[in-house]
Design brief:
mainly alpha, membrane, 17 helices, MFS, about 350 residues, MFS_Cyanate_Porter
Length: about 350
Amino acid sequence: MLCFAVAGAATAWLVRRVGLEPAIALALLLLTGGLAARAVDSTLMLMAGTVIGMSGLAVCNVAMPSYIRQHHTGRAATMTALYTVSMTIGATTAAAVAVPIAAGLGSPTLGLAAWAVPAAVAFAVFLPLAIRSRLADDWAARQGVPYVSPWPLLRTRKGLLFTSLFAAQAFLAYGVLGWYPHILVSRGLDATTAGLMLGLMQLVGIPTMMVLLAMAGRPWLLRTAFMITCGASLAGYVVLLLAPVDWVAGTSILMGLGFCVFPLLMLLISRSGDTSAETTALSTLAQSLGYLGAAIGPFGLGLMNGLLGDWTAALVVVLAVSAVQLLLSHRVTSAPRAVDGS
């Protein structure tokens, strides 16, 4: 998450220097190289490969809303659904097959490095797009587009709303997903069932994303889509905090619905601003500062549990952040000028 924050902050500058598609291609190359470096059985190479790879991934994350805006303006909801669902399917599949792959290769480091293969495929597929963009006639024209710095946006209502909402949803996603099985085990659930509940939570998000993004594609249903997912998130954490562990399936479903704030927010970012440069600036601001703030989540929640001996206080914090997320979502969708880029 810290790599996402630091490297993501440089995305607007990188896109301005080399262009949108070349920046994404470079990011995919960094991702491939960083993952491949983790094949070396060394803690130093594990950390270095992670920093390099996740820095590349950060640029991809920040640049994607701008790519959608530039190439798929009329199909923003569909394309956002496609790439966020692909991310979810990829993450769920990776979690399921990571250990068998490592066992088959006879090495945990090779198991980690194996993920350089799909990254290399993505780079190979995207490279011709980057080359064609660089050689296209409109590349010279884009050099005349004024650079839009992300940081002055922090003084605007739009910048504050988007950044705060992104930080809140990232805090919940990374903090809760990382600790959810441990919370369930501490409540008396066996480890296998706890893992299945984590899988259920992620699985629920796939069809939900499609439905909510289809709703968000219609402006009059945008707020409804946000309220459904944020309301489910809040209800899920209330049930997790107060209800017995026997309710775990319902909790997992509600929380899975709640994690769909991310694609909705990415859709709003892809629609923001008058140019792709403005979209990149807002995406850079929201994701870099948002991930920086959200990095507190996994460490902070675990630290609270370690110091206090249970998860109650940590879950109260999660519940409070979820309530803030609901309020911020309401404010974002009640301010058309904050959404349309003005």
